[in-house]
Amino acid sequence: MYEAIAYFLLFNAIRDLRGDYTEHRSMMIHVSRFTDVQNRIAEAVNEWLVQVKSDVQN
Length: 58
Known about the structure:
Blueprint: H1 2-17, H2 35-57
């Protein structure tokens, strides 16, 4: 899952560099129909994204 998110971020960065700002971009992560599982996954993804942002800034 993290690899898929990393590719999504990479492709969006490439689109930004090409000046493609008009198209909507989103990524759906569907791992379970249970909201408690979805909430745990969302928390893990958000923590990972915070780390990625920190790594990119440094």
